[in-house]
Design goal:
The chain is mostly helical and 187 residues long. It contains 8 helices and 3 strands. Strands 1-3-2 form a 3-stranded antiparallel beta sheet. Helix 2 packs parallel to helix 8 and helix 7 packs across helix 8 (174-185). The protein is elongated, with a radius of gyration of 21 Å. The relative contact order is 0.19. Flavin-adenine dinucleotide is lined by residues 63-66, 141, 144, 148-149, 153-154.
Length: 187
């Protein structure tokens, strides 16, 4: 919901400066908002994403409190045999890693087959198992997420998701996101 124009509309309302709107002055205004951290105009742009990722990524993601989440519940749904395949597992043999994940999943199935309820059976599943959630977030909070999760100190996997989110959002708000990259992200 929203676009570069929505950000401009919200900001110009603050100063009743609609008559000053030109492509150049709107561009400068967006830069000004970003630099001065006048964040509320960005809150009027809202995104909803459906994310499929390993549980360890979702756990990092959901630390971002300013946003709304609904996650597929393993209390009520049965987990699928879908694990994240990392590029590397350090010194551990990759087949060993797969064996460990599958071993956990076999224990899970054994519990389910023995009528252990799903909320208990899931306790043996690894953090690499895939989850799904819906995330609704405004652009101000999304920029905070991108700033933190595109940083090289963030874990590789969530950084990859953040890169993709940046691409999607840039298609929708090219002016705002270009300024965000110049003024905030890579400073
Ligand atoms: C590289 C990296 C390593 C991390 N390592 C750890 C770790 O080891 N352990 C760990 O527990 N967490 C860790 N975190 C999570 C981190 O501490 C934040 O919880 C997470 O990044 C969410 O950031 P946020 O609070 O800015 O976002 P949001 O929760 O979306 O909040 C957005 C903004 O709202 C304001 N806000 C929200 N809630 C409050 C509040 N209760 N009080 C005051 N202001 C509030 C703040 O200004 C905040 O920046 C790590 C994060 C990163 C990026």
């Amino acid at each position: 919901m929203g676009s570069d124009q929505r950000v401009i509309e919200a900001a110009r309302l603050c100063w009743d400066s609609f008559d000053k709107s030109t492509p150049e002055s709107d561009n400068r205004l967006i830069k000004h908002l970003l630099i001065k951290e006048h964040k509320t105009p960005f809150e009027h742009v809202v995104f909803t994403f459906k994310i499929r990722c390993p549980i360890f990524v979702a756990r990092q993601w959901m630390r971002h409190r300013i946003g709304s989440f609904c996650e597929r519940s393993l209390r009520y749904c049965t987990s699928k045999r879908e694990f994240y395949n990392p590029f590397t597992v350090g010194s551990v043999n990759y087949n060993e890693y797969k064996l460990m994940c599958n071993g956990s999943y076999e224990s899970y199935l054994l519990f389910i087959d023995n009528e252990v309820n799903q909320e208990t059976a899931r306790m043996v599943l690894p953090l690499s198992i895939m989850t799904e959630f819906m995330w609704t977030v405004n652009l101000s909070s999304l920029m905070n997420f991108l700033k933190l999760r595109l940083d090289k100190s963030a874990q590789h996997e969530i950084r990859e998701f953040a890169k993709h989110i940046l691409e999607v959002v840039t298609e929708i708000l090219p002016v705002t996101m270009k300024s965000f990259e110049q003024e905030i992200l890579y400073k």
